Amino acid sequence: MAFDRYAVEQFLYREARLADEQRLDDWFALWDEDALYWVPCNEYDIDPTRQLSIIYDDHARLRLRVARITETGMAWTQEPRSRLRRLVSNIEIYDHPDGLVQTFSNFHLTELRVNRRDPVEWIGRTEHRLRPHGGDFKLAYKKVMLINNDHEMTQLSCMV
Amino acid sequence: MAFDRYAVEQFLYREARLADEQRLDDWFALWDEDALYWVPCNEYDIDPTRQLSIIYDDHARLRLRVARITETGMAWTQEPRSRLRRLVSNIEIYDHPDGLVQTFSNFHLTELRVNRRDPVEWIGRTEHRLRPHGGDFKLAYKKVMLINNDHEMTQLSCMV
Amino acid sequence: MAFDRYAVEQFLYREARLADEQRLDDWFALWDEDALYWVPCNEYDIDPTRQLSIIYDDHARLRLRVARITETGMAWTQEPRSRLRRLVSNIEIYDHPDGLVQTFSNFHLTELRVNRRDPVEWIGRTEHRLRPHGGDFKLAYKKVMLINNDHEMTQLSCMV
Amino acid sequence: MDMATRSSLIDYAALVKPDRVHARVYTDPDIFEDELERIWYREWVFVGHESEVPNVGDYRTGHLGKQPILITRGRDMQVRVLLNRCTHRGNTLCQARSGNAPTFTCSYHGWTYSCEGDLQGVLFREDFPPDFRREDHGLYRVPRVEMYRGFIFASLAKTGKSLQEHLGPAAANIDRFCDLSPSGEITMNHGVYRMRIECNWKMWTENSVDSYHVYQTHGSNVYLANMFEAKADKPPPPPGKGYFGLIHARDLGNGHSDLDMRPQRRVTGMTYTGEWSGDIPESAQRAYLDGLEKLHGKAKAEQILTEGPAHTVIFPNLFNMLQEIRWCVPVSVNETYIYYAPCLFKGAPDEINIARLRRDEGAYGPAGFQLSDDIEVWARNYQGLQAREVEWILMNRGIHQPVGRDEDGIPYQSDLSELTMRSQWRHYLELMSSP
Amino acid sequence: MDMATRSSLIDYAALVKPDRVHARVYTDPDIFEDELERIWYREWVFVGHESEVPNVGDYRTGHLGKQPILITRGRDMQVRVLLNRCTHRGNTLCQARSGNAPTFTCSYHGWTYSCEGDLQGVLFREDFPPDFRREDHGLYRVPRVEMYRGFIFASLAKTGKSLQEHLGPAAANIDRFCDLSPSGEITMNHGVYRMRIECNWKMWTENSVDSYHVYQTHGSNVYLANMFEAKADKPPPPPGKGYFGLIHARDLGNGHSDLDMRPQRRVTGMTYTGEWSGDIPESAQRAYLDGLEKLHGKAKAEQILTEGPAHTVIFPNLFNMLQEIRWCVPVSVNETYIYYAPCLFKGAPDEINIARLRRDEGAYGPAGFQLSDDIEVWARNYQGLQAREVEWILMNRGIHQPVGRDEDGIPYQSDLSELTMRSQWRHYLELMSSP
Amino acid sequence: MDMATRSSLIDYAALVKPDRVHARVYTDPDIFEDELERIWYREWVFVGHESEVPNVGDYRTGHLGKQPILITRGRDMQVRVLLNRCTHRGNTLCQARSGNAPTFTCSYHGWTYSCEGDLQGVLFREDFPPDFRREDHGLYRVPRVEMYRGFIFASLAKTGKSLQEHLGPAAANIDRFCDLSPSGEITMNHGVYRMRIECNWKMWTENSVDSYHVYQTHGSNVYLANMFEAKADKPPPPPGKGYFGLIHARDLGNGHSDLDMRPQRRVTGMTYTGEWSGDIPESAQRAYLDGLEKLHGKAKAEQILTEGPAHTVIFPNLFNMLQEIRWCVPVSVNETYIYYAPCLFKGAPDEINIARLRRDEGAYGPAGFQLSDDIEVWARNYQGLQAREVEWILMNRGIHQPVGRDEDGIPYQSDLSELTMRSQWRHYLELMSSP
Ligand code: FES
Ligand code: FES
Ligand code: FES
Ligand SMILES: [Fe+3]
Ligand SMILES: [Fe+3]
Ligand SMILES: [Fe+3]
Predict the structure, then answer these.
(1) Maximum CA pair distance of chain F?
(2) Predicted pLDDT at F294
(3) CA separation for the pair D93, D140 (Å, rounded)
(4) Tens-digit pLDDT profile for residues E81-140
(5) What would the pLDDT profile of E4-55 be if each residue is shown by its tens digit?
(6) How far is CA D273 from the centre of its chain?
(7) Chain D closest-CA separation from residue F363 CA (Å)
């Protein structure tokens, strides 16, 4: 294998930590310019040109998603911020064309809001594609297959 | 240690993935002929000749368990199939007699049914015994200690 | 890095297992004399000289915490004992001053009581500080940042 | 609004008709409350088996309706059913599922009760009024507890029919279950499946004697069986109902009923040993038969083997079949706990008892090839009733056919009549309409 | 207490005033039950779009109020709305969200129904009484189902106003939505956002035509937009309401209303193509316009583009705007399911349809920059009503201003009047107070 | 059914007897609703401490009964209790637990209120009727708010007894708590344990002055303490109740009560400083004592130290003891939120305040060696009441003994009488039976 397993794992953990701790500017800085942040809707695999996604962000829209929370103070879903903590596990790593490293992993993210009695749980599988970049990685692609993407759900305003 | 830790972990992740994605024929193919798939009832450690188990499948019965779902179209608990995703963690690996590799790990499996509002969570600890087999492993034994095996539970039709 | 990643991970898994299986005397034996077992209240980072903690145990008080359960038979919260199982994941490891190894990890602990219908879930992030000790480690410091430490919660009588 | 008022508002005869029942009897929380009062807290209810508390001081906790109970074996070897509630300020006394304890001490203020339920110790007894008598504050004993072959029944009504009267001909079904043991005794302390189902308790009771659902609900098993028989070149059963058509659906009175398979077994020649003969070594089979013959004599033993165990529901909550005792506990109008416990033959060879366990695991329990689908189908049964534009549930199969009397004088129709369920509802209507 | 008694106890006129409503109409479970009876199980309710079941045998499950339904396309190409409930013992028949099936077989006892709802197969039909007729036991067909441009509406009342009467001038709003497609047809089978909101359903209905909330609830979007416009050196909109002040809030009768943006669009010169022109290649724009002109003629096409889609609520549960069809399903007094489905233009270039999807994702859905905040604000709306010391919810904005008639004769006030909500409540009061 | 009707149906005198109460008062949801009306939304209720909002613009959210509140410090330095509910359409205004904000802006339509609750900004004010006056739409101010030594009490009744009248002799207990601070002031802004308990709120209120439960519920602590004392060769306390028997259980009127430990302390010679002396450096102890003597004079200081803090419940929801202020909020008939906050001495050496925190952590909070068991025992208390065949909860300890008057003229019995709880129930019956 062409990848350093430990480095890949630590990148995934770092990404998780930055998202959990709502360090969203730092989290956004992990992304490369050709970013695709994709959360399909209804099914795990859809054709995004004919079917709806929950999130289908390129780099520009992702910047807006982050800025809405960090800059406006009016993203009510995150005012006050949710408390977040996620487990990332079952990491499987593959070589991917163009020198990318592809990983699949499962996650269990708990979201707790100050004005809600019970937490919300976000559970699913993630595909990451990492681009080696100066001894570290840039995030080129993240696809999140939520287990409940075809169930009635509440709002999703944290970075899943 | 006589085992390749990474290979063992990847085997466990693969097993989890095949079960989660309901690729049951592939999952079944992981098992060796002397399979024992055991889910004790009421306690973690029981004498299966005097006490009831939730599952106590040899290879033949396990084949039936899988065929019931994949071939009959009438296993209503899995029509339509559940959506599944599990985290496998805390992997501890030991040498086991007869060249087997023994692992213990904890899991958290979320099951979501199309006709249910809320998911079911299956949580517990698993003992796997793997038999090295041509650069890979065969699954000889899997014992699943469900945390709720003495609590009133719903049906268990996914591969836990 | 000065630490053996695998050994550190296995120590964390062992600690989790001893706590999960309520082998509390063994669990207590993991701790070093200068132990601090800290679960902050209300926020993740507080000044414990001015703000309340949920747990702020030195070695002596921790001994009492364990003895209350193992010796008195009257710690009703643990009579009968809870069933516990936790996933420890996202392990990040750092060198720490004085030769200690510092780790951060996320956990998801499920607690099931015989006289309760539903489990309680404890979720959060843990900082461990381990002191190398004869080929193994001693636990010098454990800080548990519960996601719900500012929410109305039930009693916390297991070792989180 | 108190119970009496609430209940008098419900016209049960308008909801329970001879050939159909109204969906409301399954979904109305007021009716559920009323049932607690008129059925669960008055009638004979199955609560456990004495083999669960074989020794002095043994106990098992559970529920009678929604009330927490404690089944204990006293120093006089008597089995009692006590409310698991301290008489001081009401705390549950015992938390564990089962165990052995000479006394129970309340965790609130330390009052201590004997395993017979007597109040033994009151901390600082001297602070209580002089007319405070420990004798007045023992645990509440369910006033009527009777056993039949180890099956424990309890009734919260101080007076009423005896258990024997209540069981009537259904007692013989319990006999058939126990007589298969070479010692005449079965034990129900080998684990239990605890399950929660998402439906009203009466859907469970009905389903338990509903042979009509086997073809579809358990179609996957039929499918697999046919698949194997086809491969084995075995002759398929008669088309249509197969041998099922020979079964009798019987009305045993008091809401009890069974699916009497004896007519079928006589035709197919199936015997109890034949059911598992493939798996059991010759010697164990022989030892088992010897025991049976020794106990019953050869003729009776053969009859017992041919007739096999009964498949019977004893209203409201006991279901006895094959190797299992099953019972239900109502939780709320839309949730029910069910308990399925395999029973072993005391004194039988291990191989036979192991076969009973393995068979149980294959079909029943949360992961069983049959019960798992029942659990799903029960949930669909309850969900569908939300479609309240359709008001009635049909219960009319075979209602036009004559009701025969079998050799025991028991009313029956051929299997696949809904006679069994109709007998439950007739009794239900009586109980719910009585003053 | 039965529905009639319960309902007659509630004096709705005391709770719904011209300028305010009492918090209890959102929080009282008895009122919720009453609404099911008087609105959801009587009035025309939106249930889906025919493009969801384009082919024979296609089906889609859902709910009409709380009752499970099955929308099917029969072999006669007719769309039916059936209760998803087996007529035998009540089980839900079909579990999947959608699919194609020539028949539906119940998993309990195997009764089989055609996709038109006819009972086709009864296992062991011969066991049922001779007067049992399959024709009497088909799936319950919702008695009145009508479509308008593919929008399917259903009413459980056997008689009543036609859909056309019910829609009245609101039909034209649906026209505006569909006429933007170069084929005149839209398709609603490209996925759907399924969401649960923690509030009473009427809070959703109100909010959908509440333009007052845009400034604050969606302030983050305004903020970001201004930020970008500032950077782009664009002239800011007029101060205060900006161009919003030109919008008309209209009362379309029968509880329907809209925010009519045409007056605003005429002033700003915004046209439908202009809204996305940046993203779409010239050729695709041209092809789209050509299609439109071919269908409607040049003048009408230009009018359509200038007017754009409507923003309209059709009482009680349809909300049609921009590229979306939205509807709600009441779950309980404090929970509502909402479904937001983007519609694509049949026959339009892919680039245009893709742009519709991408726009949808940006603003709506659980992670949309607008809807996510609505979801939070709805929850706060319900939570606040626990402060029951304050009894009233205000609905009086613009109530003092004259109500005009626009060129279509429709009563309106300038935008940012709460006329739209008042028109909902007036209709609500009528429905809830009728005998 | 409205509240008045519902309430008039309940005969509280039949449920609350001098020596026992009926289980229904803890489990009936209608009674819970009635209590909201007659106790929580009428009587003086503890809501917080002014040290939580020391500065202008500070706020803290919470609940008065089930109604969301906002405690604020206005620009006039006055503490107000406002309903956290926008007067426009009812949204909760503020979501955070606490903070500082000069104004509150509603996230729905942007109405803005000052921290005094005045409506300051209405977006597009001009669209509202001319007779719309901002003055009429300020946040609802809880009509009566009074403080006693920083303890904030609120009453939703517009008129009634003053706080001073309400507290009566219980005020002196608050004094004892505060007088231990060398500045005479305590601060309650050092974190708070937020806990949910699975029982009716009155079980918490009772337990708080129930010394009888200490031996068993907290038996693990007694056990460990004895273990250590045995090892330390200390003389064990007198057998039986030990020194507990000296405590007075007092009835302070209006439902308030305490366990007066002063008689015990006088005998054992325990003083407040002695309780922590081991841990605190000499110099800090000296500084603390100096402060106390400076404030109170030597004699009074010594009295304060000897008497120590009170252990008192002020009905319905305040419990003040050792270093803690505790209060409860009713959530539903079977759930209660409880808040336990350690208070520090303003002006005391850090070492002493740290010792207060560490002691708090040892015993209280979700992981405390005492409170964790209380939480479990409360749940068992509620669970047991499902055994409804037993109807009564006993409250008769010591009822036969004479009631004395102590030197302050306050009725008391020796400790381990249930006088304290009986005084709660007598007051409860008065409140619930009043017209
Ligand atoms: S409640 Fe059992 S001893 Fe008081
Ligand atoms: S319930 Fe559908 S076939 Fe019986
Ligand atoms: S609800 Fe607060 S401003 Fe409208
Ligand atoms: Fe079945
Ligand atoms: Fe909105
Ligand atoms: Fe206590």
Answers:
(1) 83
(2) 97
(3) 12
(4) 999 999 999 999 999 999 999 999 999 999 999 999 999 999 999 999 999 999 999 999
(5) 455 568 999 999 999 999 999 999 999 999 999 999 999 999 999 999 999 9
(6) 24
(7) 17
| Mean pLDDT, range D342-351, rounded to an integer | 97
| Contact indicator for D395, D20 with CB cutoff of 8 Å | yes
| Secondary structure (3-state) at E221 | helix
Cα F33 from Cα B133, distance rounded (Å)? 67
Interval E206-239: pLDDT, tens: 999 999 999 999 999 988 888 776 666 665 555 5
**Residue E297 backbone zone (phi > 0: left; psi -120 to 50: alpha; other: beta):** left
Would strands D112-114 and D119-121 be described as parallel, antiparallel, or unpaired? antiparallel
Q: Is F169 helix (H, G, I), strand (E, B) or coil?
A: coil
Q: Report residue F432 as tokens.
A: 């619930």
DSSP one-letter string for F13-57: HHHEETTEEETHHHH-HHHHHHHIIIIITTS-EEEEEGGGS-STT
Distance CA(D330)–CA(E164), nearest Å, equals 49
Question: B5: which DSSP letter?
Answer: H
What's the pLDDT at E1?
40
The terminus-to-terminus CA distance of chain C in angstroms comes to 28
Pair A36, A57: CB distance under 8 Å:
yes
CA atoms within 13 A on the CB side of D315: 28
Residue E143 contacts D, CB cutoff 8 Å = no
How far is residue E419's CA from residue E422's CA, in Å, rounded to a whole number? 5
| Strand blocks (E) in E267-317 | 312-314
F108 CA → ligand 5 middle, Å: 9
Phi then psi dihedrals of residue C144, to 5 deg: -115, 115
- CA dist E345 and E327 (Å) reads 20
Structure confidence by residue, pLDDT tens digits, E418-435: 999 999 999 999 999 987
Distance CA F418, CA F400 (A): 11
User: Which residues, 6 or more positions from E72, have their beta carbon under 8 angstroms from its beta carbon?
Assistant: E53, E57, E58, E59, E79, E80, E82, E115, E116, E117
Among D52, D39, D162, smallest CA distance to D99 is for: D52
Tell me how far the alpha carbon of residue F333 lies from the centroid of ligand 1, in angstroms: 21
Q: Reading across the β-sheet that carries D151-155, which strands appear in turn?
A: D45-49, D151-155, D144-148
pLDDT digits (tens, 9 = 90+) for A54-71: 999 999 999 999 999 999
Rounded distance, CA A18 to CA A12, Å?
Answer: 10
- Mean pLDDT (whole number) for D192-212: 97
Asked if B56 has any chain D CB less than 8 Å from its own CB, the reply is yes
**Does residue E91's CB lie within 6 angstroms of at least one atom of ligand 2?**
yes
Three-class DSSP category at F250: strand
Q: CA separation (Å) from C65 to C55, C56, F130? A: 10, 11, 67
| Contact criterion met (CB below 8 Å) for D7 and D423 | no
> Distance of CA E266 to CAs E235, E247, E302, E305, E312, Å?
19, 10, 12, 11, 19
Cβ contact C30:C20 at 8 Å: no
Model pTM?
Answer: 0.97
Q: Strands, DSSP E only, in E287-378?
A: 312-314, 318-321, 324-332, 335-342, 344-345
Q: Do chains D and C touch (3 or more CB pairs under 8 A)?
A: yes
Q: Which ligand approaches the C-alpha of residue E208 most closely?
A: 5
Question: Does the structure's ipTM exceed the value 0.90?
Answer: yes
List average pLDDT for each run of 10 residues in chain F, which is 435 residues long. Answer: 57 97 98 98 98 98 98 98 98 98 97 98 94 97 98 98 98 98 98 98 98 94 79 62 83 98 88 77 94 97 95 98 97 98 97 95 96 98 98 96 96 92 98 90
In chain F, whose CA is at the least distance from the CA of A115?
Answer: F95
**Residue D298 at interface with chain E, using a CB cutoff of 8 Å:** no
